[in-house]
Amino acid sequence: MAALDALNGKMGKGTVRLGVPRQNAAWHLRCAHRTPRWTTQWRELRKVKA
Q: How far apart are CA 4 and CA 6, in angstroms?
C-alpha cells in the first residue's frame, strides 16, 4: 500500500488502484453484450489452425 500511496501522491489521486475497473473502460461495453452461451456450444467456438 505504501507503494500505491507513493505513486498516487506523485502522479495524482486515483491514478493507481487495486483491481477496480473504470465504468467507461473499453472492455466494459464488450463484455456487457456477451451471450451467456459463449462457452457452452462447441460448434459456436472459433477454430484456430496452427
A: 5
